[in-house]
Every structure is written in C-alpha cells, then in structure tokens.
Amino acid sequence: MTRKILFACVLVVTLIVTRLEPAQAHGLVGKRFLPATLAIDDPFVADELSLPTIFHIQRRGSEESAPTKETDLSGELSKRLSPDLGLSLGGTFKILDPDPGKTVSGFDNLEVALKYVFVKSEAHEMLLSLGLSWDVGGTGSKKVDAESFSTWTPSLFFGKGFGDLPDQLGLLKPLAVTGALGWAVPSRIHTKTFETSEDGDVEVKKPLNPTVFQWGFTFQYSLQYLQSYVRDVGLPAPLNRMIPIVEVALETPIDGRDAGHTTGTVNPGIIWFGRYFQLGLEAVVPINAASGKNVGVLAQMHFYLDDILPQIFTWTPFHGVLGSTQPR
C-alpha cells in the first residue's frame, strides 16, 4: 500500500513540474544565498550531499529508560529530478550509551523525501516549497528503538530574505528567515508489545503512536550580503563568507499522553560557505527537561554536488543537464 501511495505522489508531482517554468535551484533567490541548514530542512531542491552530520546530546532518564548519551552520525543525498522537484535519501547511525547499561548502536530507519518549489520571487527573495517524507518502518535496528511502522510527513517549507527593506533599514537587509511546518502521521495507530513479569505472566500492551506537529525556524544574518549589497565593512576571509544563525527545532504531539507538550532545541551557531562546500557548527540547547539534560553539539560538512561536477551530478530525466547553480 505504501509503495502505491509513494508512486502516485511521484507521478502527480512529476506531471505538474514538467508543465511549469523552471526556477533556479539550491541556495539562490534573487541576490540572496541561503545555506543548507543543519537542524531544519531548507526550502530549496538541489544536487547535494550532507556527510557527515554529527549530533551529540545527553538525554534525561525516565521511568522506562536510564539517562543516555546519544550520538548520531547522519548522511543525506539529494538529487534534482527537475529544476523544481527533488528527491533525497537519508540515513542515521545511532550510538546510545545509557548510564547504567551497555552501549548499543545501529542504523535508524531510512528516510525518503520529495520536495517541490512552487513559489519563487526573486524581487522579494522569497520561496515556498511542499514536501513529503517517508520514514520507512522496519529498515532500522530495534536496538536503537527504530520503529517497526512507517511515518508519513507532508510539510511546507519557506524562505524569506529582507533585501527588499527600505534603505533606512539597511543593516536589516542581510537578515533572512526560513522554516518548516510538518505533520508526521504514523502508518500504525498502536504497536502491540508483550512484557513478561517476574511471576511469568505475560502482559499485552498497545501504546499509541502519536501524530506529531513538527515545526521550526531559522534566523540568519549573511555577512557576505552585508558587504556586497549594503555596506563594505572590510571583513577579511573567512569572516566574509560566514552566516551567523539560530535554528529553533520543535515537536508537539497532537494526541497521546504527551499531547500538547512541546519539546525541542534552540541552536545558535555559524555557517561558513565556499564555492563547493560549507561547514556548520551549532550548540544544541534543550528548551525543557524533556528535550535533553545538557547543551549538545551539531556539526555538518555539506557538499554542493551541482557545483563540484555539474555535468555529472545535474543530469535530470525531464530537463537534461541543468549545470551549476551558483554564479562563478
């Protein structure tokens, strides 16, 4: 059933994009360059590779689990199918170190996602995208609590630069905001589990798999935009290619025992971008006790495949070779 749904979504979006005018791809909307963000997915489609993304944080214990140090090593490959439609594949290797307890590791579920840019305004440095991701149940390891059921998440992505502000507010022009709003729906409402007591009695449990509202924002200030289009303040390399950023990544269950209780993190950090790749580093600050115990860290190396080898990586089935996407 899930294969039929995925095929239908691909077919419908493909038929739409082959009849629309193409838009520019990764990172550029008007004069604005928006980087690939670390915690919140950006609104562009592109030929790119995030490898590795490293995440580490201390999780608080609960009645059912011990305090645990979590380390995630992730990778994601994204490929344009047209100038406006992209497909991505992502995977995460998790290392869980409970105290007390034995360290366990394994892969989380594979994630497959489609994204389609349907609005783009060069003059207002704005774009909107629709996405659909599929967390493929049963593809990960039970040792790291990978779910046996799938989760489908339709999402809306947006990006807006403030270069269209009046000149009196020139120092605000390098500011940009991006965000994502998603509705994560599990394919199975309940998961049946069996627990054996010390007396040998078997208890059947059917916990609810909640629907979750996933939402987040980023606030960015481009020092390159400041120097190029507002005021040359004489920043040397590598400062002139840096973007201070704050990401806010949140989740709110819609039903179940934790309904309405939001968890998440606020991630202040910095992104440096070059011609062919970018580097990002952020602190991960939990917003409450349920989100984490201490400040964590998030780091990423991200490659622009569409600029590294454009004749190879930018071939598409509907529009031929698209070529590089950043001005040389």
How would you portray this structure in words?
There is one protein chain. The chain has 328 residues and is mostly beta strands. It has one domain: monomeric porin ompg (Porin), CATH 2.40.160. The protein is 10% helix and 47% strand. It has helices spanning 2-17, 223-230, 305-308, 310-313; strands spanning 28-29, 32-33, 48-59, 68-80, 85-98, 104-107, 111-121, 126-135, 151-161, 175-186, 193-196, 202-205, 212-221, 242-253, 263-273, 277-286, 296-303, 315-316, 320-321. A twelve-stranded antiparallel barrel has the order 3-4-5-7-8-9-10-13-14-15-16-17. The protein has a two-stranded antiparallel ribbon with strand order 1-2. Strands 11-12 form a two-stranded antiparallel ribbon. Strand 3 (48-59) and strand 4 form a beta hairpin. The longest helix has 16 residues, at 2-17. It is globular, with a radius of gyration of 21 Å. Mean pLDDT is 87; it is low at 1-25.
Task: Label this structure with key terms.
328 residues; mainly beta; single chain; 4 helices; 47% strand; globular; 19 strands; Porin; twelve-stranded antiparallel beta barrel; two-stranded antiparallel sheet
Any chance you could write out the topology, listing elements then pairs?
Elements: H1 2-17, E1 28-29, E2 32-33, E3 48-59, E4 68-80, E5 85-98, E6 104-107, E7 111-121, E8 126-135, E9 151-161, E10 175-186, E11 193-196, E12 202-205, E13 212-221, H2 223-230, E14 242-253, E15 263-273, E16 277-286, E17 296-303, H3 305-308, H4 310-313, E18 315-316, E19 320-321
Antiparallel strand pairs: 1-2, 3-4, 3-17, 4-5, 5-6, 5-7, 7-8, 8-9, 9-10, 10-13, 11-12, 13-14, 14-15, 15-16, 16-17, 18-19
